[in-house]
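FORM 7B: Structural annotation worksheet

SECTION A. Query
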Amino acid sequence: MQPVWAACVPPVPPDPASRPAKPALPAKPACADAKPGSPGCLGWESHSYNDAIKAYNAALPGFRAAAESYIGQLNAFVQASGDYARCEVKALQ
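SECTION B. Predicted structure
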C-alpha cells in the first residue's frame, strides 16, 4: 500500500510592495566642488546640505531594520520553496 501524502502547499513570496526603499542621498550642491580661488557655498547652502545629510543619516537605521526584515522574509520563502519542491518529489515517488 502506498503512503498517502498531504497536499503540498506552494510558498507565497513576500509582497514586492513591502520592499523598503533606500533613502535618497541628498544632492551635493555644485558650490561644494568649487575650485580653489572660486567662491564656495553660501552659509545657507552649507547649512541646508548639512541638514539634508543629517536627515539622511537619521533615516538609515530605519531602512536597515526594514531591509533586514524583508531579507528574512525572502530567506523564509527560499526555505519554503525547497520544502515545497521536496514535498512534490515525495508525492511522485
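SECTION C. Observations
The mean pLDDT is 89. Residues 20 and 92 are 39 Å apart (CA to CA).

SECTION D. Sign-off
Analyst initials: ____
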